[in-house]
Amino acid sequence: MLKPAPVKLDYKTKNLTTRLEVGDIAVIKHKDIDEIAAKSLASKKVAAVINCSQSISGGYPNLGPTVFINHNIPLYELEDGDLFRDLKEGDIVEIRDDGLYRDESKMATLKSLNTDMLLQLLEQAEKNIKVKLEEFVDNTLTYASMEKSLILEEQKLPDTGISFQGRHVLVVVRGKTYKEDLKAILSYIKDEKPILIAVDGGGDALLEFGFTPDIVVGDMDSISDECLKKAREVIVHAYPDGRAPGLERTKGLKLSAKVFPAYGTSEDIAMLFAYEKGAELIVAVGTHTNMIDFLEKGRKGMGSTFLVRMKIGTKLVDAKGVSQLYGTDVDLKHVLWLGAASLIPILVLVALSQPIQYLVKLLHMRLRLYLGY
User: Fold this and answer.
1) Which of 80, 82, 154, 159 is at a distance of 20 to 30 A from 198, taking alpha carbons?
2) Residues paired with residue 171 on neighbouring β-strands, in sequence order
3) Concatenated DSSP letters for 94-150?
4) Which range has the top average pLDDT, 191-200, 262-271, 323-332?
5) Alpha helices in the chain (DSSP H)
6) Which whole-number Å values give the CA distances from 194 to 31, 39, 229, in the listed order?
7) CB contact set of 133 (below 8 Å; sequence gap of 6+)
8) 75-80 and 105-112: which strand pairing?
């Protein structure tokens, strides 16, 4: 049983996370909840999560629910009731036994998803992965054929006041391990000073590390107002027919924005934009590169991503997961040992070289005269 707590509700998990406070009970409707969404909820230290949809439907092994288990956050699924109809934001509710109560009135019947149940669901999903893989491949090939103009035809790129010619470009997406990967390449960013392109929420990822994006690209649905106002330029990703829902957001903030109509995902066109503008190297962080990534984003294929990466070729360095290749923490004792080891060849050189021995003796004599002994 959990103590009474305020409830917060939203059909879009990413919108809900902006309003959550420690100890809230989060009510979502998120089928096959993905790892990134789960981590965003867990970071708010909520008391519990109630999902009004299937947390694991069995189509593929999504890892979002395991995040709650690892953070000791109870996860429930709705079995009976309509919370979005019957509750309002801020209502004080209580979870006990198999129900959700408000003022002693039972509002819904809940099912608790424990570790054993989640493992069973994930095991079943693993068995279905081959079917999902076949569907994913077919979808990718179909859309690659439909969207081949993305790389075969010249794209109408928006103008920019930033020169890309011969420079490095860092494209940041707020995907899995983006924090760890950005931390791992901080020295590269500080030394090379690449052009920083943020894809939607990737802008806030850069702000977390003290960097301001040069360009923000996307449909503007998961980026803060603060970041949009700070970015040097804003490019709204539009549908091929020119419709750009994200423009409403920028107009509401009284920001000047350019439009880039193109097939594919916003991260695809961000990389394509950098390539076509003459970037020497494109480094990508947090991007979506595999079937699970795309399924968790609600996409059933990766046709445009396949095409764009094929066109960019060797100019692209994908830094996703680079933090897992090596640790970035340096132990002080290792630095001291390294410093001590570096003195060995110097000492050997002094011992063997007559001129250096003479110079050391001379310096020693002058030091004695200076100190008066």
Assistant:
1) 154
2) 197, 284
3) EEETTEEEETTEEEEEEEE--HHHHHHHHHHHHHTHHHHHHHHHHHHHHHHHHTTHH
4) 191-200
5) 13-16, 35-42, 64-70, 83-86, 115-127, 129-146, 149-152, 178-184, 186-192, 202-208, 225-230, 246-252, 266-276, 291-296, 303-312, 332-352, 354-371
6) 38, 29, 20
7) 291
8) antiparallel
Q: 145-163: b or e for each residue (b if 16 or more CB lie within 10 Å)?
A: eebeebbeeebeebebeee
E strand or H helix at 261: strand 258-261
How far apart, in whole angstroms, are the C-alpha atoms of residue 317 and residue 190?
17
Which residue type does 103 have? D
Backbone phi, then psi, for 189, in 5-degree steps? -60, -45
Q: Any residues with CB less than 8 A from the CB of 144 and at least 6 apart, and which?
A: 303, 304, 306, 307
Q: 156 pLDDT band (50/70/90 cuts)?
A: confident
Q: Cβ neighbours of residue 140 under 8 Å, at least 6 residues apart?
A: 301, 302, 303, 306
Question: What's the CA gap between 50 and 144, in Å, rounded?
Answer: 38
Return the SS3 of 233: strand
Of 353, 339, 262, nearest to 308 (Cα)?
262
Residue 322 has a pLDDT of 64
* CA neighbor of 65 nearest in space, from 82, 87, 80, 48: 48
Chain-centroid distance, C-alpha 248: 24
51 touches 24 (CB < 8 A): no
CB 38 within 8 A of CB 73: no
Q: Identify the CA nearest to 100 among candidates 33, 2, 24.
A: 2
Chain mean position to CA 67:
16
- Residue 329: pLDDT band (50, 70, 90) is very low
Nearest Cα residue to 196 out of 263, 154, 209, 310: 209
Place of tokens 């109408």: 156
**Cβ atoms within 10 A of the Cβ of 63, count?**
19
Strand pairing partners for 76?
50, 112
